[in-house]
Amino acid sequence: MCKNTKIRRNRQAAGFRYKRNLPCIFLKITYIINYRHKIMAFPILTPQEAADIIKNGDNIGLSGFTAAGTPKVVTEALAAKAEKEHAEGRPFKVNIFSGASTNDHVDGALARANAIGTRTPYQSCPDLRKRINTHDAHYFDLHLSELAQKVRYGTFGDIDVAIIEAARVSDNGEILLGTGVGMSPTVAHLAKKIIIELNEAIPETIEGLHDIYMPLDPPYRREIPIYKPSDRIGTTLLKVDPAKIVGVVRTNLTDGVHGFSPLDETTQMIGNNVCNFLIHELRRGAIPPSFLPLQSGVGNVANAVLFGLGESNEVPAFDMYTEVIQDAVVDLMEHGKCRFASTCSLTFSDAKMAEVFNNIDFFRDKILIRPGEISNSPEIVRRLGVITMNTALEADIFGNINSTHVVGTKMMNGIGGSGDFTRNAYISIFSCPSVAKGGLISTIGPMVSHLDHSEHSVDVLITDQGVADLRGKDPVQRAETIIENCVNPDYKELLWDYLRMGKGGQTPHSLNAALAFHTTFASEGDMRKTDWAKFA
Length: 536
Fold this sequence. Notes:
- By secondary structure, the protein is of the alpha/beta class.
- It is globular and about 70 Å long.
């Protein structure tokens, strides 16, 4: 493509009418566009041109947190580039650093193209999960609050390119971010080059919802001055060196978050049990009458809990200090039940996001979107007295939690922010159904097959069967409480028998039989067929 053809195309893409009789010197002003009435002095690139900036082995930093605020078109073009490189016999993989999980445009497309060398700190894409579990992609699981500082310290090398989704970018390097922040400040600060995905689907009226703050690193760090969830400590815009912005790619795509399916009976029972526990604690004075900030994980159980709290006349209006807010929070705000939410991400369904955008003035003083190292800061979680609610893949009768690995070996999603919140909570709650796969699997066994949260961090375990308050109990008392209150009836006697098999000591495990539920499922396909006599 000749230079003048490229000039003409860029000018036409920007909305100018090309005139052949314009002086050549005027044509050389190729990269100044009038977009949303704001002048930007950056090249307008196609996704393919942006992808060509990225090289094999590059470390790529992404904006966003979950699907919210995550890039959408450059990474798909990068996947196409990788497929072409592979077809021509050349290696091509990049290393992806993000705030949390991304979306199919990133992890899905790149995984299908086998273009991911290393991935951290969290993911939730089935295609990437397959690559991780077959070692086609290296994945290291990390507490979300830790990654930004480790990146700034150079633990994983330089950030070569940052891809940042924005609602606006100014020629002085001020960026209005989208619906998720994640690790944007750190990767934009450190990256050698920055690519902006300018998304027309995000209205500029979102300005004011962000609170961008990057703490100093040790040994110079001071306290993070948040003393209530609504405290603003940073700026509404992300400021970067404009010389590092190598181009702007225009998009018009929503985050594509799907609404949650209707609550089933099990999910509803778990939600009710969590609500009833919190109300009981409020009644007996273990939670202050003004209540405490809540953190809630992602999924149907979290939504069920929030809806239940919203319907309770005994629970006062409350704040949230969390990493993600979902559809239920919007409804709670509209009904006056949730006063304020500090978050890292607006993980709303497209329909709910449109509702928020259409009524943005109502939500402007009720939401702050922060970087992940602030939303997940252990210091702040401990200071505010956050009540944390997260989900488990499995638990054991002594209160240990597996959040990440199916039957101990296959990575599901990752630890995410659950450890950041759990280990610093006022009350830490984990919940899960009592059985899986139609009863073939008990989610509570003698010993977890993989350990993410130890008994020392878990205050309460809740299933559809009931509530086990583990605070102040020794290991045997915890086991008795969990078996009696949380275990499915099909497995109660098996677990009572296991506890009686214990070989003494404070935590009476039978090491020969500790993983018998898992080995029986592997051989028989049904944990209920466990025969302790084989392990005596």
